[in-house]
Description:
Helices cover 21% and strands 35% of the residues. It is of the alpha+beta class. The strands form 2 sheets. Strands 2, 4, 5, 6, 7, 8, 9, 10, 11, 12, 13, 14, 15 and 16 form a 14-stranded mixed sheet that branches. Strand 7 (185-196) and strand 8 (200-208) form a beta hairpin. Helix 1 (2-17) runs parallel beside helix 6 and helix 6 (121-136) packs antiparallel against helix 8 (382-388).
Amino acid sequence: MVKVLLALGCLSMFMACGKSKDDDDDDSVGGEKLEIEVADELVGVTDPVVDYSSSDDSDEAAEAESFNSLQVRRMLRASEGVSLGESADAIAELFNDASNPSKAFCDTVNSAMKFFKETSSPDFSLCVLKVMAKKNDAIISGAEVVIEGKIAGMDEAHKMKYRLDMDGENVERFELSSCQKSSGKYSQTGYTLQEYTDTGVEVLTRSFSGSTFKLKAEMTAQLDADRKPVGLKEIDYAEASADDDRVVHGLVTQSSENIRYVGFENVDGKLTQYYSFSELIDANSADADLYAVTKLAYGDGAAIVKISNSDDEDGTYTEGWSGTSLNEDGSSSRLAKVQDKTSDLMDDEDEDELDLELEAAQKFDCDTTADISMELEMADFAECLEAYEIDQEGSEMCTDIAYD
């Protein structure tokens, strides 16, 4: 629900951006009206990663090749994998039906669902930007725009401030602050900053929901000639509930073929530390108009899992698994990527160490008068919801499986 509310606020922004290039309301905001294709250059936190050219001999290309290399190469087709687009209940049933299900695989998928659910919130906003900009045939750059949108048939409203700056034909900087109105009062729910160079991008996002939780993600990536992430993409992700009974921190490295997660989750004092390396299966077609994280799947892989302060699970476990059978697999080719990595497990941190609070410059006065106001329809962004709406309610889906 948090993502939907945040995205609706983004929707109001995009309606303003997408007005006709001859609209007088746009003229009152200032800035320059650009063609809608500019929106396609904005990079999402969960966007796919492409490979370097086989002829590229850069250090970055070599690092990506090393990341993907496996000591045991099987001349077999990729595993079927577990789709992040499935419901948590459906995934739990798949693991329960396996003959020797891997607890580490189940926990890895569970963590991945939470990770992609939360970090895709700003990507959902970008999706709506592209849809609305194309529908309205324009986007504004070079000026701050504050827009308010009321949702038809719903007792809610959303207000946004954004700024898009260009360097010639390329995006140089994009900043977005979002607010939602509940019980008659606005409060800020998110902040995003994208900064580009000629060859790379850094994206900072922060999301929060009143007294429920706070989250940040910082993504860095090199860009190819088409301004798409290439080689390896890194995401520093952290989350904490308001009462600090759940704290999560992870460092994610993603290529076109694999994804590595090094991090921890502390829930009411039970500490689980992960070092996982998994096959990442992407069912999106190369010519798809809309990239969907719900079409990603986790396949063959391996992980080290260390559990502390639990009632009966304390210990360090190393498991490989099959992405097709969901069973433990002691011959998994990705076991070599995690073996002897116990010393690389991430130490526990508290919320203060993770720096989840907004800085002064990231705060937005939600009572600021909007430059443009309009009414919106839920159906306008249904495709974006389908692409990014992951069923996150799976925190208990692995409880029927035990580590050996």
